[in-house]
Write a structure and sequence with these properties.
The chain is mainly beta. The protein has 3 helices and 22 strands. The protein has a 6-stranded mixed sheet, with no helix packed on it. The N terminus is likely disordered.
Length: 324
């Protein structure tokens, strides 16, 4: 009888050991998939300015066969990621942003850069107003106001294959600037010394950009931007855009630049320029420079009264003709 008990115990222990071995084997296969080290290098030769402006990059890797994307944070030079062998579509964007946001990142085709809605007077230095009652250029009243994006540098690449190897493998990615830089100057401005605050907007611009398919959104939006004064005779500034909507009709392709000025007596004025030709005929659509000549700001009745402006009390729109 003792011999039978000993034999039964031995069999039970053996089965138990086999069960433990089997469970451990499954844990190794299903909870710890095999990965390879992929060395990612960012080559900034296509966007040399980014090499000095960018501090880091977000790298999204999408399995070509389907499934969830993987996100990695890398330095501007790149880095090493651990990822399962397979074929991937990738997107990379610079991480040092304030205004630009991401949505649709669950799929390579819907990955979208965008900015939040904004006040018309978002570019004002001292004013704190919502812009709800601030007039806009005629014909642009229905456009959403959105923030200008940051300077964005992006990579999109399809079919990058990671194979099973005994040593590391390398992929080189080439970031490019994905936003457009708009600069402007308004020369021969009168009574600039009496200016209290100033900002501007540009209509007819795209509110977002799909990185994977390299296409801007077709919606028309208005971008508020800040303006600097030299306190003598010139207003100037720089802002970033996603560019012009590609699917806009001819009637929608106009771009109105509006300058909002608050004088030292609290009076409020806005001036409209049609800059369509300068935007569309720029030699480089990613580097647009707008030059305007002539702006007559009204001389304050009492420059020193310190009156605070009422945001509902804007003067009539003044359209400024651009000399040809």
């Amino acid at each position: 009888m003792k011999t039978m008990k000993h034999l039964l115990c031995a069999l039970l222990l053996g089965w138990s050991a086999l069960g433990v071995i089997s469970c451990r084997h499954k844990d190794l296969c299903y909870e710890h998939p095999h990965t390879e080290k992929l060395n990612v290098v960012f080559d900034w030769s296509n966007a040399p300015e980014g090499d000095s402006e960018v501090s880091g990059m977000y790298l999204y890797m999408y399995p070509a066969s389907g499934g969830a994307q993987q996100l990695f944070y890398l330095g501007k030079e790149g880095g090493v990621v651990d990822i399962a062998p397979g074929t991937y579509h990738v997107i990379a964007i610079n991480s040092d942003t304030e205004a630009t946001r991401v949505r649709g990142e669950t799929a390579w085709e819907t990955f979208e850069l965008y900015t939040r809605e904004a006040s018309v007077l978002e570019g004002m230095t001292f004013m704190s107003v919502t812009g709800d009652n601030v007039p806009k250029a005629e014909g642009t009243e229905g456009q959403r106001n959105v923030l200008c994006p940051d300077c964005m540098f992006c990579v999109r690449e399809r079919d990058i294959t990671v194979v099973e190897v005994t040593e590391g493998q390398t992929v080189v990615l080439y970031p490019e600037m994905a936003t457009c830089m708009y600069t402007y100057e308004i020369r021969n401005v009168e009574n600039l010394e009496h200016l209290s605050d100033v900002s501007g907007t540009l209509s007819g611009m795209s509110p977002s950009y799909y990185v994977g398919i390299d296409q801007v959104h077709s919606e028309l939006s208005t971008l508020p931007f800040s303006t600097q004064s030299d306190n003598v005779s010139t207003l100037s500034g720089m802002f970033m855009t996603f560019g012009c909507p590609v699917n806009a009709s001819k009637a929608e392709e106009e771009h109105q630049m509006v300058i909002y000025a608050i004088m030292s007596d609290g009076s409020q004025h806005y001036f409209t320029y049609d800059v369509t030709d300068q935007v569309h005929n720029a030699p480089d659509p990613s580097r647009v420079h707008i030059v305007l000549d002539g702006l007559s700001l009204p001389k304050p009745a009492d420059p020193g009264d310190g009156m605070q402006p009422d945001v509902e009390d804007w003067g009539n729109e003044e359209e400024v003709e651009i000399p040809m």
